[in-house]
Amino acid sequence: MDKYLGDDDKTARFEAMTMPHLDAAYNLARWLTRNEHDADDLVQSAYLRAFRFGDGFRGGDVRAWLLTIVRHTYYTALRDGQAQRGDVSYDEELHGDGEQDDDAGDPAAIAASRDTCRTVNAALAQLPRAFREVLVLKEMDDLSYKQIAQVTETPIGTVMSRLARARKLLLAYLKHGEQDGL
Asked: 96-132: per-residue pLDDT in tens?
């Protein structure tokens, strides 16, 4: 009986530690896989790995540790040929900031906002994976440079460089998209 209580304690500790970061894990997974269903599978696999090897967590930033596992799980699956590629579709609830503005009921404003979001989403999807990854971690998951360096296992200088290049490239894609009528 004590054996099972210990498992319940481990499960409860794991859930308390990781569940607050589920949205960040899913967000990273979605941008890595570029598909909602694959992102679900990736997060499930990553959480299973994190649970299985959670005893190896030695303190520190839980979110960065978990996102590192999500990233490693993705690249392992990609290397092993398990990952499928798909298009990224914009989900208003997932990517919206949740704030209501004064134009919330205005159909023209809603349509313009959705068009802008689609344009940004399409430009972001064009970025090379390494650039998209740091941009998502910084701008969407609000990680610090140090946390991003930990997750991506790269020096902070590389993170800053990639982030600067990603922003410039994203801006170029957006400008190009405006010219093409995206």
From this structure: 444 444 555 667 666 666 777 788 878 888 899 889 9
Distance (Å, whole) CA 137 – CA 93: 19
Return the HEC string of 14-70: HHHHHHHHHHHHHHHHHHHHCCHHHHHHHHHHHHHHHHHCHHHCCCCCHHHHHHHHH
Global pTM reads 0.64
Per-residue tokens: 39: 């992102």
Distance from C-alpha of 80 to C-alpha of 163, rounded to nearest angstrom = 28
Q: What one-letter code names the amino acid at 7?
A: D
Residue 54 dihedral angles phi and psi, to the nearest 5°: -60, -25
